[in-house]
Write a structure and sequence with these properties.
Layout lengths: L2 H22 L18 H18 L2 H28 L9 E2 L5 E2 H9 L11 H12 L18 H16 L13 H9 L1 H10 L8 H5 L5 H19 L5 H4 L21 E3 L6 H20 L9 H9 E5 L2 H18 L10 E3 L11 H5 L6 H15 L1 H4 L5 H19 L3 H32 L2 H17 L3 E6 L11 H11 L9 H12 E12 L9 H10 E11 L12 E9 L6 E5 L6 H16 L7 E4 L18 H5 L6 H4 L1 E3 L2 E2 L3 H4 E3 L12 H4 L3 E5 L13 E4 L1 H4 L4 E2 L9 E5 L7 E5 L3 E3 L5 E3 L7 H8 L2 H10 L7 H5 L8 H22 L12 H4 L5 H33 L4 H11 L10 H9 L13 H5 L8 H8 L12 H8 L3 H11 L4 H22 L4 E3 L9 H11 L4 H11 L3 H7 L1 H8 L12 E5 L7 E5 L5 H25 L6 H29 L10 H10 L10 H8 L4
Helix pairs in contact: 1-3, 1-6, 2-3, 3-14, 10-12, 12-13, 12-14, 18-19, 19-20, 30-33, 31-36, 33-35, 35-41, 37-41, 42-46, 47-48, 49-50
Length: 1229
């Protein structure tokens, strides 16, 4: 089992045990029983938990939720206690308490020793295991409150359950899949904590709910790996230390980038250096900071004569240096446990100490209950009274927003106003008095605040409240302390996922004057900055979106204007060394100093040309090289002000100064338009694929014909030049039914569409004046006309443009703001003409190839029909050779365009090499085999429509190359998989770094036919033929089974083959092309394959235009129908004509066989019996549909019309997924 599976098992054991125990206390799932119904020995326990439950009901507003939270807290507390004991056992801090050994009679050493001192306990249940742990834990509680019997959630389940839990913990180290020294690992508690929450994370993710404050840790909790923690701690705290003590040995023992050579800050006593993690989780940063501080204290003692006693160091670190806050009580438990274990390892007999790591999960009463404490013996003005009430209200919200509460800001804001007055008044004694009065007020206020919290708890006289009160006071002190270093791996919740309460709080507190509300991690950047002093440092890891995306522009401006990037690691995606295989997250981690600096910032780029598994080692190598003065091409340094050259100040640190100047001129969006379009408000209702709707309602040009369904650019997969024109939108009445129609004055104009998201980058396509466009499929309009539309399209599809867009936003979701910032160089007339001509040819070629594809609006003919040769294989071979030839021409044109664009932008050779290193060489310009080149130039079939005149000289000038037999064999071995997913001609050539001319030539010689591509084309050919047959049929219903009133589909297909000029032999050979007999394919595979083939957008449904209706696997009745003729009347006809014919025929056959007793006849009678039963059930389903008012309307779309049939099991394949089915069944249109 994996560690996470062990954690799940242990958690389930503990939860079940405490659920059972609470029920014994009369605290049931839905109600509490009267206390007199609880056994007398359990009543004190019941009273203790009643108070906790009441407090949590006040917090959650629900008994059921409060009880669930109580079980959660009890479960995790025991989980933590036991896990920490296992860690302390492994560290030999005391003899084994939980780990059982055969030599001790399958008991732990501690349990055996305890029994020897208490022999009377041997007769108790499981030899008094529960009493033993109760006493042992309480002894630990003398130095660690978590183990004290007064701890709010201290509880042990019954002995049998407890023993099962102990055994479950002991199974971990015995598992062959778990490393032997698992409990000795520094971060085992952290990893267990992350695993512990996996179940709840999944539930929250699957729910699709917004993330409210109480779900933040579930939505975005990721554990920071130790090597990242070490880097950030050493390069923030370590750097700060070296700024005070530049000659310290610390600089030689740790990899600290840009370590200062001279003293840059005034030294302060080490015990006054304060570090905080405001979202500390299980304390990973604090745990390593403990180790690092320990080394710093030794350095102070040994090299600077500091008056510290080595024995006091652990206590000094925990009580003075380390601070942490988290919303999650259980995470704080782990953090405290980890620190305790660290301290215990350094000093075995360490006494009790006070942690400054606290949970903000406490509950306080309304201000009215404590107002008198603040007013007694004071004369407060109205503003001070309002401030106190406001801060108390904020403190009440601490359990929701944790360290994001800004008590210190509110108090200091008024002080800044008074100080501002003093500065203006200079010698105004009244201003001085005001400031002194205010400082006196704040001092009294904080004292009173502590008093109010303490008196509230004491008044209730409850241990639980007293404990939580201490948390509230510690929390208050932490929020009003100034820190030297703030470090965090904060939650990563996007504003779109905020619940309403969280959204309101963040926007009210972190939206002005700088916008830090776009993501919780951005909010924490601001909060870390606020919590540090004027020369403090911030060390963080989180997604790298802040570096580039427009919505984080204010975050960047704040960081660049008010801080200095000491070091930043642009790490990118790594599912091996960073956050694990299930987390797709491009990360950056960095150290930011407050205040301005003229020093260059240091950047490490791990995002390019590097497999994930090598990233960590490459980074550590680059760091080591830099510290050692060795050049490394992944290391960059940059004056921070240069980041301001590019609009919106993205962190583009790696380009040359010459390249950076390109961004200083005109940008694409300055005078041209890069626009997002409409939002439907309901895609299921308003969007269709063009084949779903009545062709007579399809608009060719809405301003002219005002037809309902207009072409709609929705982005889609990576396709350049032309394509993805599948979707139409209901634009009736000028789009009045749609949610928004932004920029509608640009609808139905010639332009350039593009796909904004995807790992391959942005791809641009020409669109005619027949389209509207989407938010996710924006368009570019060449308003200024300083170049032709075709030139602009060529530039946008160039490698240089791709590189620039990747610089401006290297995430998979590019925004219109990114494209608007693309620097635009104006070509000469010659350059404009040359690029335009090549772009135009590429568009025409892509358009022409679309005519062979069933899913394209301009589909015209199948390759099986167009290429008239005797054998189907030869037809497909001819088509694929033609396709490869013209696509090679597109790729050659692209290579020429790329060179022309480099010339237009006047790039240096160094910058050009930088672009190609990232984007790859143009495959159309790669070396070519001489005989392939000659064959390509002499080919006649492809050049009939697309002559090579304009590019012949370029092709002739290509460098030639010879391939060894082994090299060629390796390339040709990939031909059978050509055209499969992510393996079209271009991708194949990129993967093998081979010119497409070579591939065209070798593929043609090989006579290989990729089976998957041949099968797909055959399915499209057959679908087009069946569509034609169904449309020729009077009612569009054709049975697959005999004796249903009409000729079966299989016979009609054979007739259609003959009608189209195919011979009987060719028809017979079509089975081979399909890979199975046609009748089997029609009955079992066609409908599913067609449905899947028409699944072109991830979030739109599959929309087959041919449906397979079936009574079931016995094929009592099966037919195909065409959506264009389908209606309520046709369903009734299906029932009354086709099914009646089929049923009567089967009944007659059943009668004919009644006297035949042969085995064969008996088998047939059994089959007919099952078929008739199946038909009877099918008729009931039809009757139900009719009774429910089923009346399909073509323009309502396949999803809505097929959903009732799928729900009743009338089609043999689930076209809609469960979510789609539910939506369409409840559709209100």
């Amino acid at each position: 089992m994996k560690l996470s599976e062990h954690v799940d098992k242990i958690r389930n054991h503990i939860e079940a045990a405490f659920d059972k125990y609470l029920s014994r206390l009369g605290i049931g799932k839905n109600t509490q029983s009267e206390i007199d119904q609880v056994s007398s020995e359990l009543r004190n326990e019941r009273l203790r938990f009643e108070v906790i439950l009441e407090n949590q009901i006040g917090e959650t507003g629900s008994y059921e939720v409060a009880r669930e939270k109580l079980i959660d807290e009890l479960t995790f507390t025991l989980f933590n206690r036991m896990a920490a004991v296992k860690v302390m056992e492994a560290g030999a801090l005391f003899p084994p308490v939980l780990t059982k050994q055969p030599e001790h009679g399958d008991r732990s050493f501690g349990h055996k020793a305890w029994l020897e001192m208490n022999p009377h306990m041997r007769i108790e249940e499981l030899e008094g295991i529960r009493e033993y742990l109760y006493i042992t834990f309480n002894e630990l509680g003398d130095t660690l409150p978590l183990y004290s019997n007064t701890y709010p959630y201290a509880l042990l389940p019954d002995a049998i359950s407890l023993n099962e839990i102990i055994d479950a913990f002991n199974e971990v180290e015995k598992d062959a899949q778990i490393e032997n020294d698992i409990w000795e690992s520094d971060d085992i508690l952290g990893w267990m904590y992350e695993s512990y929450n996996n179940k709840k994370k999944k539930v929250h993710k699957d729910s699709g709910e917004k993330t409210e404050f109480n779900k933040v840790s579930l939505q975005s909790q990721v554990y920071t790996p130790q090597w990242v923690v070490k880097f950030l701690v050493e390069n923030s705290l370590g750097k700060l230390y070296l700024e005070m003590y530049p000659n310290s040995e610390i600089r030689h023992r740790y990899k600290i980038a840009n370590a200062p050579q001279i003293q840059e800050r005034k030294p302060k006593p080490l015990h006054e250096v304060k570090v905080i993690d405001p979202a500390c989780g299980s304390g990973n940063f604090l745990l390593y900071a403990f180790d690092f501080f320990y080394e710093l204290y030794h350095d102070q003692i040994e090299n600077y004569g500091a008056d510290y006693d080595e024995r006091d160091i652990p206590k000094l670190i925990i009580e003075n240096n380390l601070h942490g806050i988290d919303l999650d009580d259980r995470a704080v438990q782990l953090s405290q446990l980890g620190l305790f274990i660290k301290a215990k390892k350094k000093r075995r007999n360490i006494g009790e100490f006070v942690f400054n790591v606290v949970s903000s999960d406490f509950f306080l009463p309304d201000y009215e209950e404590v107002e008198h404490i603040f007013n007694e013996g004071t004369t407060l003005d109205e503003s001070q009274q309002e401030l106190i009430a406001d801060i108390w209200t904020d403190l009440q919200s601490a359990y929701k927003f944790g360290s994001l509460i800004r008590l210190d800001e509110k108090i200091n804001a008024q002080l800044k106003v008074l100080e501002s007055k003093q500065n203006k008044a200079q010698l105004d004694l009244f201003a001085v008095v005001e400031i002194e009065d205010y400082i006196s007020f704040t001092t009294t206020f904080f004292n009173n605040l502590k008093t109010a919290v303490e008196q509230y708890a004491k008044a209730n006289g409850v241990t639980f409240l007293m404990s939580k009160t201490r948390d509230a006071i510690t929390f208050l002190e932490l929020l009003t302390t100034e820190y030297d270093v703030a470090m965090a791996n904060p939650p990563y919740t996007d504003t779109a996922d905020f619940g309403p309460e969280l959204k309101k709080y963040i926007e009210n507190n972190y939206k002005k004057p700088y916008k830090f509300h776009t993501n919780l991690y951005a909010t924490f950047i601001k909060r870390c900055y606020e919590m540090t002093g004027t020369d403090g440092k911030i060390a963080m890891i989180h997604p790298h979106t802040f570096m580039f995306i427009k919505t984080f522009e204010d975050v960047r401006k704040f960081m660049i204007e008010k801080g200095h990037i000491d070091v930043m690691v642009d790490f990118g995606l790594d599912r091996v060394n960073l956050f694990g295989p299930g987390i797709l997250l491009d990360a950056s981690f960095y150290v930011l100093s407050r205040g301005k600096s003229n020093k260059k910032g240091l950047y490490f780029n791990l995002t390019t040309n590097l497999q994930e598994k090598f990233k960590k080692d490459k980074f550590l190598e680059a760091l080591s090289d830099y510290v050692s003065g060795i050049s490394n091409d992944r290391v960059y340094s940059l004056e921070q002000d240069k980041l301001k050259v590019i609009k919106s100040w993205p962190f583009i640190y790696w380009i040359s100064d010459e390249f950076r100047t390109k961004f200083g001129g005109e940008a694409l969006g300055d005078k041209n338009k890069v626009l997002t379009g409409l939002m439907t408000g309901n895609n299921n209702k308003h969007l269709r694929f063009f084949w779903e709707v009545d062709p007579t309602n399809l608009s060719e040009h809405y301003p002219s014909d005002h037809k309902r369904w207009v072409g709609y650019q929705k982005g889609g997969p990576f396709v350049r030049w032309y394509g993805n024109n599948w979707v139409v939108v209901d634009y009736g009445n000028n789009g009045s039914k749609l949610a928004t129609t932004d920029n509608k004055e640009f609808y139905f104009k010639k332009g350039i569409s593009y796909s904004a998201s995807g790992s391959k980058g942005v791809s641009f396509r020409q669109i005619e004046n027949t389209y509207s466009f989407d938010k996710g499929g924006p368009c570019v309009f060449n308003v200024e006309q300083k170049m032709s539309d075709e030139y602009l399209l060529g530039f946008l599809n160039s490698k240089l443009c791709s590189y620039i867009v990747g610089c401006l936003n290297p995430t998979v979701n590019r925004q219109v703001g990114d494209l608007r910032r693309i620097p635009l160089a104006i070509p000469s007339n010659r350059e404009n003409t040359e690029v335009s001509s090549l772009s135009k040819i590429n568009v025409i070629i892509k358009n022409e190839l679309c005519k062979f594809s069933l899913v394209e609006p301009n589909f015209n003919v199948s390759p099986y029909t167009h290429f008239a040769l005797s054998h189907f294989n030869n037809r497909i071979s001819l088509y694929l050779n033609y396709e490869n030839y013209v696509l090679a021409q597109v790729l050659i044109n692209e290579a020429i365009i790329n060179e022309k664009i480099f010339e237009v932008y006047d790039l240096t050779e160094q910058d050009k090499a930088m672009v190609l290193a990232k984007e790859g060489e143009s495959i159309g310009g790669l070396p070519v085999v001489e005989e392939a080149l000659e064959a390509y130039l002499s080919e006649t079939e492809g050049t009939k429509e697309f002559p090579l005149d304009a590019i012949r000289d370029f092709i002739k000038s290509l460098p030639t190359v010879e391939f060894t037999a082994e090299e060629r064999e390796e390339i040709e071995s990939g031909f059978p998989a050509l055209y499969q997913n992510n393996n079209n001609l271009e991708e194949f050539c990129i993967r093998h770094q081979v010119n497409p001319i070579n591939v065209w030539y070798w593929f043609k010689q090989s006579n290989v036919i990729p089976q998957q591509r041949m099968h797909t084309l055959a399915m499209e050919f057959l679908a087009d033929m069946i569509r034609e047959i169904l449309m020729e049929d009077e009612d569009g219903i054709i049975p697959l089974v005999p004796n249903a009133g009409e000729k079966i589909l299989l016979d009609r297909i054979e007739d259609k083959f003959r009608e189209k000029g195919f011979s009987p032999a060719q028809y017979s050979s079509f089975d081979t092309v399909l890979g199975r007999p046609i009748h089997e394919y029609l009955n079992k595979f066609f409908f599913a394959e067609l449905s899947d083939h028409l699944n072109l957008f991830m979030y739109l449904p599959k929309t087959p235009f041919i449906w397979h209706l079936s009574s079931g696997p016995e094929q009592g009745f099966d037919c195909y129908i065409i959506i264009y003729k389908w209606s309520r009347d046709k369903l009734m006809r299906l029932r009354s004509v086709f099914i009646e014919h089929r049923e009567r025929s089967l009944a007659n056959r059943q009668s004919d066989l009644s006297s035949n007793e042969s085995a064969e006849a008996q088998n047939e009678k059994d089959r007919i019996f099952r078929q008739l039963k199946e038909i009877e059930a099918f008729k009931v389903k039809i009757d139900e549909l009719l009774a429910e008012g089923y009346a399909p309307i073509l323009d309502d779309g396949v999803g809505k019309n097929i959903a009732p049939l799928q729900e009743k099991g009338m089609i043999p394949y689930e076209v809609l997924n469960a979510g789609q089915l539910k939506k369409y069944l409840n559709a209100d249109w």
